[in-house]
């Protein structure tokens, strides 16, 4: 199983980024997927989840209304569209599959003027 996160970078407050996570080595379309993040000097926290078919999504209160999780099962890819970014969104972002204890390598998002 392999998950490859990408799309992070430096963005100004109020800006947007879209993260991607490509999965391989398992039946991607059969499993829910989640995004987590780990801010500097803090514990890793859950951000969003999407069901296997993409019909249902849930979000942490801190990102609700600003972030959108989606997936393209034909491309084995899950996305996290992040809008209206704030400095407190600065973190390393990881995707995770419910196929098992498998995580992406993480992608750094820094929100700073």
| Strand portion | over 45%
The coarse overall form would be: globular
Rg over alpha carbons: 13 Å
* Helix-strand string: EEEEEEEEEEE
Sheet with most strands: 7 strands, mixed
DSSP summary, beta strand count: 11
Count of individual helical segments: 0
Judged by helices, strands and strand pairing, the structural class is: mainly beta
Distance linking N and C termini = 37 Å
Short description:
It is built from no helices and 11 strands. With 113 residues, it is mainly beta.
Question: How would you describe what is shown here?
Answer:
The chain is mainly beta. 0% of the residues lie in helices and 50% in strands. It contains no helices and eleven strands. The strands form two sheets. Strands 2, 4, 5, 6, 9, 10 and 11 form a seven-stranded mixed beta sheet that branches. A four-stranded antiparallel beta sheet has the order 1-3-8-7, with no helix packed on it. Strand 4 and strand 5 form a beta hairpin. The radius of gyration is 13 Å and the shape is globular. The termini are far apart.
């Amino acid at each position: 199983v392999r998950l490859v996160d990408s799309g992070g970078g430096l963005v100004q407050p109020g800006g947007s980024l879209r993260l991607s996570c490509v999965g391989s080595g398992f039946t991607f379309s059969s499993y829910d997927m989640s995004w987590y993040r780990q801010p500097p000097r803090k514990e890793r926290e859950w951000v969003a989840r999407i069901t296997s078919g993409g019909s249902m999504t849930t979000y942490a209160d801190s990102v609700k209304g600003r972030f959108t999780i989606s997936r393209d099962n034909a491309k084995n890819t899950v996305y996290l569209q992040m809008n209206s970014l704030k400095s407190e969104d600065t973190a390393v972002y990881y995707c995770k599959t419910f196929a098992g204890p498998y995580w992406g390598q993480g992608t750094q998002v820094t929100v700073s003027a």
